[in-house]
Write a structure and sequence with these properties.
The chain is α/β, with parallel strands linked by helices and 263 residues long. It has two domains: 58 residues, Alpha-Beta Plaits, CATH 3.30.70.3270; 132 residues, 3-Layer(aba) Sandwich (Rossmann fold), CATH 3.40.50.12280. The protein has eight helices and ten strands. A five-stranded parallel sheet has the order 7-6-8-9-10, sandwiched between helices. Strands 2-3-5 form a three-stranded antiparallel sheet. β2 and β3 form a beta hairpin. It is globular. It starts with a helix and ends in an 8-residue tail after the last helix. The relative contact order is 0.16.
Length: 263
């Protein structure tokens, strides 16, 4: 005779645990205090000729040549080197996790007072196709597994990506688009192109992380392609090293028109 006690214990445990899936996007995500989100800078605190932040940046994401700062989030590793190097505290990292944009040039910050161009929704015709059901094939094109890990987190019970109709599939022929991580090494270039061609049109391409956007710390190395944009058209750029799962999910939902402008 099979005892019912183990089953009852499981039911009791589930009742104690309660609902584990977060309330995002209706509720703001619970973010760690040490999260380094979108950086900001105060140009009035930058003396002429000072290049300490730019010289400290390992990926040359900061340009201070012309007396003003330009910060390229597509190259930024969100490390604290620039913040630590600045003698006047002109540059600092905020806790703003909403970073995804549609265009590569929108990741270049020139005026800290200007509104950040968050990702716009797809055109209405495309949104009708993908807005309620989006299947993605993930391509790890030479990544270190950090972006891949934070992407995988979205499939756990806490995030439950499937509740938005977004799922990862095993074959590009079953996909609506690609989610690419890594700088795209030379060994992966042909594989990425073939995978892209195997996705039936219309299709989307999402670049996740500094490597997939610009090559990251491997930028200009001869054995990689400086990101996915050099080989395939990119529809959504999600910066970070790696981007927080909330950053990735926020970008995906904005692309599908499931989120409005930030309050």
């Amino acid at each position: 005779m099979i005892s019912e006690l183990p089953i009852l214990n499981v039911i009791a445990a589930r009742l104690r645990q309660g609902h584990r899936t977060m309330g995002f996007p209706k509720e703001p995500p619970a973010l760690p205090e040490r999260l380094r989100g979108r950086p900001t800078f105060d140009p009035t605190q930058c003396p002429a000729g000072c290049r300490q932040c730019a010289e400290a940046c390992p990926t040359h994401a900061i340009d201070a040549k012309h007396g003003t700062l330009e910060l390229d989030l597509g190259r930024c590793l969100f490390c604290p080197e620039c913040e630590a190097a600045c003698p006047r505290g002109a540059i600092r990292f905020t806790s703003e996790y909403r970073l995804a944009t549609r265009r590569r040039q929108d990741l270049v910050l020139r005026d800290p007072a200007a509104a950040y161009p968050l990702a716009e929704a797809l055109e209405i015709t495309t949104r009708r196709l993908f807005g309620r059901s989006l299947k993605l094939r993930q391509v790890s094109a030479g990544g270190c597994n950090a972006c891949e890990a934070d992407t995988n987190v979205l499939g756990t019970v806490g995030w439950d990506l499937g509740r938005f109709g977004i799922q990862f599939v095993a074959s590009p022929r079953h996909a609506d688009g690609l989610l690419i991580t890594g700088p795209v090494t030379k060994n992966m270039a042909l594989a990425l192109q073939k995978t892209y061609e195997a996705v039936p049109p219309p299709k989307l391409v999402i670049a996740v992380g500094a490597c997939a956007i610009s090559g990251g710390p491997f930028r200009e190395h001869p054995e990689q392609c400086d990101g996915a944009g050099s080989l395939v058209p990119v529809d959504l750029q999600i910066p970070g090293c790696p981007p927080h799962p909330a950053t990735i999910l926020d970008g995906l939902l904005r692309l599908l028109g499931r989120l409005g402008p930030p309050q």
